[in-house]
Structures are given as C-alpha cells and as structure tokens.
Amino acid sequence: MPITACVFDAYGTLFDVAAAAREAATEPGREAFAAVWQKVAGDWRLKQLQYTWLRAVADAHTDFWQVTQDGLDWALEASALDDPELRELLLALYFELSAYPEVPAMLAALKQAGFATAILSNGEPKMLQGAVDSAGVAALLDDVLSVQDVGVFKPHISVYQMVNDRFGTTSDQVLFVSSNGWDAAHAAGFGFHSVWVNRAGEPMDRLPWKPARVLCDLTTIPEIAKAN
Asked: Per the structure, how many domains does the chain have?
C-alpha cells in the first residue's frame, strides 16, 4: 500500500531537545552552567527517557511534564547545580524548543504532496503545543497525538495504534520517523515504514526489529514518502 500519512516523534526528531540548555548557557551570569550545559542536557534527556520506560513497565504512568522535571532535577544534582532560578528557566525554555532547520520546508513539501502529517509523542499536550507554536509549524500538521490519551509511554503498542485510529490507515500506509533508535525499531515491529534520524551517529539498537532507513537529518523524507 502507498504511504498516506507521515508521522514524527517530536523531541529530538522535529525539535532540538538541547536547545533549552544551550540557550540558558548563553545568558550573562551563567558561567558555571555554561561549563557543564552539554552534560546537563545529555543527562536530562537520558533520565527523561529512562523514567518513561520505568514508569511504563511498573504501570505507574504520569504525564511527560513530570518526568521532564524529574529528569532535570537528577541532571542538575549530578552536576552539583543547586539553582532554583536556573531550573525554572530551563523548564520555561523547554516549552519554546526550536525546530531543526530543515523541518519547516520538509513538512511543507509533504503537505504539498498530499500526505497527512502528524506528531506522535510522549509529550504532554501543552508542552507539545508550545513547541509547535514556537517553531511555527502548526499549519503544517494535521494533528498532534499525545500518549496522554492512552495512558502509557512508548514503545507500548497502543501508542502506535493511535495513528491508525486517527487516520484510518493500515500500518503499511504510515511512514514513521524518530530520532530514537528504539522508537524507530518498535514502530517497524508494529508494521510502519520506519525511519531512524540518527543525528548523533549512534550504533543500531539491538532489538528484534530494525528501521527500514537510517538518515542523518529529515531533508529527504518527502522523497522517501513518495517512493513507497
């Protein structure tokens, strides 16, 4: 079946998750944070993801805003930063994450070609809306789907099923794109045409499934969608 819907993970795929820490590090008086911002950003993202997996397997769901705060608190403590003002700044900036440079043109090309476009994310709806609005891509998306509607984080099968339920697709009509190797792999296992945007050049996750393609950015997604 031809592709009819192109669906994207949000954080790290469309939106730069390091942008909040990077921007905060440039503020005057933030020299101590500037020296460790990359470590904090990496720890924050890792713990954010780990907490979604741990909560999912323990059946202890909460919203993504809570795990985002929990991950940040761990990351700040790991770098010996006890700064409530910095914490609040980083959380505020997370609502305003910038999109990667190629995102607007890529989404516009998909829309022009007649594909449905959407986000499928662990993100809490208000967080996602903040990022979408800040990046100026709301008009290029048909929907923003959040796991909050099913009460469990990725990679639970019910999350991927949200796409078919929303667009009336079969799995082989969906092109799914994620910067998380494990997410792209599980999406492939669900039956989606799956693309891993491997911006960091990481090794392939050792899972039973593999994405069909590995890219370094999103530029060629419209061509891939048309070719399937």
From this structure: 2
